[in-house]
Amino acid sequence: xSRLFTNRIKMITNKNITIQLEKIPHLxxxxxxxFLSAIAITLSPMPSEAEANRTTxxxxxxxSERITMSLLIPSAPTSIEKDALLHPKQNEQLKHHQTKVKNxxxxxxxxxxxxxxxRDVYNxxxxxxxxxxxTKLSPGQTFDITVSANNELQSLHYHIDxxxxxxxxxxxxxxxxxxxxxxxxxxxxxxxxxxNSSLFEAANEAGLSESLTMDLAxxxxxxxxxxxxxxxxxSFVVLYEExxxxxxxxxDGNILAAEFINQGKSYKAVRYTDSDGKSNxxxxxxxxMRKAFLRSPVDFxxxxxxxxxxxxxILNKIKSHKGVDYAAARGTPVKASGDGKIIWxxxxxxxxxxxxxxxxxxxxxxxxxxxxxxRNARSGSRVKQGQIIGYVGSTGRATGPHLHYEFRVNxxxxxxxxxxxxxxxxxxxxxxxxxxxxxxxxxxxxxxxxNTNIALSDFQ
Length: 460
Ligand SMILES: [Zn+2]
Known about the structure:
By secondary structure, the protein is an alpha+beta fold. 21% of the residues lie in helices and 33% in strands. Strands 12, 15, 16, 17, 18, 19, 20, 21, 22 and 23 form a ten-stranded antiparallel beta sheet that branches. Strands 1-6-5-4-3-2 form a six-stranded antiparallel beta sheet, with helices on one face. The chain has a five-stranded antiparallel beta sheet with strand order 7-8-9-10-11, sandwiched between helices. The longest helix is centred in the last third of the chain and has 23 residues.
């Protein structure tokens, strides 16, 4: 079992792509030469006669380059590790530049800073045209660039993030582009805790990060309402990965297995990735942790009226309430609670603007008093669980903005808050054997940790 904790996986993927620079036909050069004067202004100092050829090539692409370079993506963490590969042959003539991507930077701006010109931008961009990584610079990323004494580009290392580096060089005078990616080395660890007041407090005490706590709540959120069902003495055990690079922890990885004991009832979940690469959490018997229906079709809402008999505020009489009302701000997105097909999307008497979804043969859900519909959810459209179908409003007989939600099984109204929801698809038959084989060690591990006071250090 301790093998499981020390098991380290290291994989380095190298995608080697060699691209031969294309030559621009001589005929085009005359045409291209028209741009020469414009380029001469943007590129200072003025190119010499001998450099005319380089500059004309640059002119041909500088416009498109400028367009693609303006696509910037929000900041990602900077790579600060030394790139072991960036030690080209010792040569007094070579100059190394290390430069950081600034806000609004483009490859052109970076190259200008270190004295490279538009031709270099063109060549490099062309080498990267498949992935277009150089058009997606983020502030904080770094470049390591080597140039010769007469400022000819020799190599470029673009550190995208801690695991990815784009390398452009010419080891044997042929330009080459490599996307070097390193995989994190996952190490398995665990955390366990007993709840006194809230899951977040207990998880924090157990040293579980906020994001792992959210994951934990999400995994069990289909069975346990973490706002209402939690009791003092509930407990959890979580087996998860920490991701390392060169012996240093970078971040937490996935939860591999977890147990939550709520009011004496144990819920277990294990992560399984099938041969098609799909990952999901399953109970130990292979049933999905997810349900075919969301318990609530609106986030950040409060239940303002429950299922059953109540005094109707507008009709002023006792009436049976056939659904649940969720008070939420006007415009709050309303989500399809399960996969299905929209069979109604129109006004419907007191319900106002209404959407009805048919889920298979047995289930039907209704969403009333909508302010508006989602454009992508038309009558007859297929919708996925969680897909936005409309927005909270107060159309029809409503005193204020809220969603009226109904859940029908074989035509009869059921309480959406208590109806037993069917599970999402279980593990596929063809993966069952593999699932058992992979999940058993994790579940065994979970049991051992849950039942003993074994110290974490015993595993490391
Ligand atoms: Zn209602």
